[in-house]
Fold this sequence. Notes:
Distance between the termini: 66 Å
Number of helices: 7
Strand content: under 5%
Largest sheet: none
Radius of gyration: 33 Å
Oligomer: single chain
Amino acid sequence: MTHDLVTLLRPLLTAEASAEAYASGTEPGDLEQAVWLRLLERLEADGPPRDPQGWLRRAVRTEARRTRRHSRAERPYETEPVGAAEHEPEQLALTAARHRALRDAVRRLPGRCPRLLEALLSPKDLTYREIAGELGISQGSLGPERSRCLGCLRRLLAPEVAAR
């Protein structure tokens, strides 16, 4: 009995789902699956419908309306959820490449700049006093020295950044 009903309704369901899917913002296959599920629930609870074709048309429209209501209520994220994209392999590889390029550029800087910027980039999060002590310079000259080194780094990285 169920097999005959499925065989009878399949072409009609395919046509109805294709017609309603675009307006409901869903895929025809998803709409078909929802209606088949509804039919199975109906068969279990009340038996086969008296007018299977009429029931199927109403079920497709009901599912399409339900899908439209849900899609109106759903809103995409304005941005990716915090931390979602940063742990993907592609993003991790790009971040590692940027860090390598920065460290390579820092090593090519003149004078004390490589040591100064390495200290500033240190994961130890050193204070200006600790950096000045480590480099053997006065704490007051650290700011101007840092500015000069960052200017050199900008000039060094500008062609690389522009090339990308």
